[in-house]
């Protein structure tokens, strides 16, 4: 660390220690001026966020970690930047709005140093120092922002997976699975597991797979359907596919997909009507004491 | 009478042979089981075989093939084969391996397998008797 840098570091940390409050306020003010935040973050939250970041920045500068690594290695500072970016990401702020947040801090910090000294060289070094310090923070905040968004996407697709595959009991020993959305390998797996477990639990004899909500059927989707039907059959239950809309039926015919081994019906109602005769006439799980009661 | 070679018991109920597979069936035992069962079908003049596999957590491709071959063999000897009680995980694995046991009859459990063969629970009134009371 050369002298001009350590001098600049001292100058910045002094400014932070003495005028931390002012820097934080100015930063918040700059952010609202630039109208960076159209999202639901309140001014109070913003103030709190600014205070904790400025504090962490000071704590980071008082260690002897080199300037380019302070943001990424100092735990408190890292957490402050992470929190800030995460909050932006969850609030739905755009990335172009998130990075100026960090960059606005540069300006606030420099103004604080400026009120302390008028020496041009010192100011130049301080500016250089602040740049190096906060550029890494900017880069990191962007990275975390992207991570935060991806986390949201992952969580949503997981939720979608769980939500979109209910198994409904629509008649004694008849189950229905209304499929909604495209049927890919993961979905098939989830549907199959849910359905087979429900068949085992309810001792169901017929499973109806309703594909009204499936936008299109290609060879891959058909393959997945066949797999599910075969698994149901292996469990000892029958399978009916319903909800094949006219355009879908045409596509299936044009692609030459062979669904002839599967019982198919146009609507769920027709499928249920077809399912009931498939039931053996006595419920298998009927308790021997039912007649006594 | 008992399965000495494969260690799998085979019971006779009228003209139906009832047996169950356990997890530890290796290739040798599977072959022995097939031979034994085939002989019993002829010896006992069985018309149907019920194989309960509800204890099986895993079916490898060999056992799957054995089941399919057994079905074909039994059919040649004039007997039906019903595989009962397959677990969901087993069904999924088999389907993913592309082993769909085509031609093999399956039922949800042994009871339904027996009912498919025309057996009636003793406590139940015969067909044409009073209907199950509504609840």
Automatic annotation (TrEMBL), chain B:
Alphabetical list of InterPro entries matching this protein: Bact_StressResp_Reg, STAS_dom, STAS_dom_sf
UniProt domain STAS: residue ranges: 6-117
One Pfam family in the UniProt entry: STAS
Signal peptide boundaries: none
Top-rank taxon: Bacteria
Descriptive protein name: STAS domain-containing protein
Species whose genome carries this gene: Streptomyces huasconensis
